[in-house]
Amino acid sequence: MKPEIIWINHAGYELRVGGLRIVHDPWLFGMAFGEGWALVSESRFDVSDFEGVDYIWFSHEHPDHFSPAVLKKIPEQVRAKITILFQETKDRRVVDFCARLGFPIRELRNGEKTQLNDDVAVTCGTVGRDSWLFTETADCAIFNANDCVGIDWNAVASRIARPVDLLLTQFSYANWVGNPDDTERMAQAAADKLREMDAQLAAFEPDHLIPFASYVWFCRTENFHMNAQANRIGAVHDRFKDKVDTIILYPGDHYRVGEPHDNASAIARYDADWRRHDAPIDLADKVVPLDEIIALGEAEQRRLRDKNMLWLLRPLAWARKIRPVSIYLEDLGTGVRYSMFGGVVASGIERSACDLACSSASFAAMLRSGFGYSTTWINGRFRELAPGASLALSRHFAIAARNEEGDYLPGLLLRRDYVSMQLRRLASRSF
Asked: Looking at the chain, which terminus has fewer C-beta neighbours within 10 angstroms, N or C?
């Protein structure tokens, strides 16, 4: 019998195959990325539905895929019977968290086939911090591309060396792509995502396609403008339906691979839900005083110095490839300067002379965690006041982010992949 899919939400679904129940990336409720994203539609799948599930697979640590709040809601006696599947990582953050909650763990080696039972095997491929999953039985093959981007899909297709029955892949952009007046830039990002889907279809030649992992809306005042150019599922369906059997699943829908499905009903329900999100959610961020911002900067500097030989990167500052970035804190009405080599300096600079603007809470989040900058970049809750400012700021937080993953200077400089990636980024734009 062909596998059955029960749709959860966004990137989440339960796959029933070969006598197993495998849940993928369950995000059921709440907001994500610094309260910058919300689900377009309400989930029908409830924490009680985890009863009887055999496995949960997480593609990566982002909170719209790996939701600690959801995992904590699962009753302890149920957790003990569900094995977590996750890519091998150096930092083990995800698997350690799940183990503390009482879940059994099974780590998946990059590109290595793992038998879950006599009938079902999975292969997980890592792409940076993200991963894809290839699930196969004797008579069906399902490829979950998830959020993976910027890779050679033809090479991946050759690597799995088997025809794909069903492809699931992201259908719209998932990060900041411009200020409110950057309409053309946002439209270009949306079109680029569709071209990525074209490349995947050409590589895998699947019989069926499920567009997913983009059922969110940018829900705050600072990022609400990005909804206007995001790809909507009805238009995505119309673009691909003549190329491949395109399946649209709404929360609670059941789909057996290869059988007919009522796409029109699912699209209509998503459209109705989208129309309800006609204004940003009115939430007030906690104002972080300037002295606390400076203290957070000092604490971050201590962490960087303790873990890394930052002096090795000084030549980049001398060559003006890494320069201080001025950030206007909207709720404090003042600008500060920030550098990975000196932390936060209270400058009092005017907004018109700053490079980037955000709330004090957003900037504080960048300083508290190595992944804080990427959270803000994904939630889009900032404005570029100078072209390229967000890229320039990312350079200052790049080492802190790698520290979170268990990589430090000077060891990072011995990794060819890291060095080549950073050189490409530095060459892309000077700031």
From this structure: N
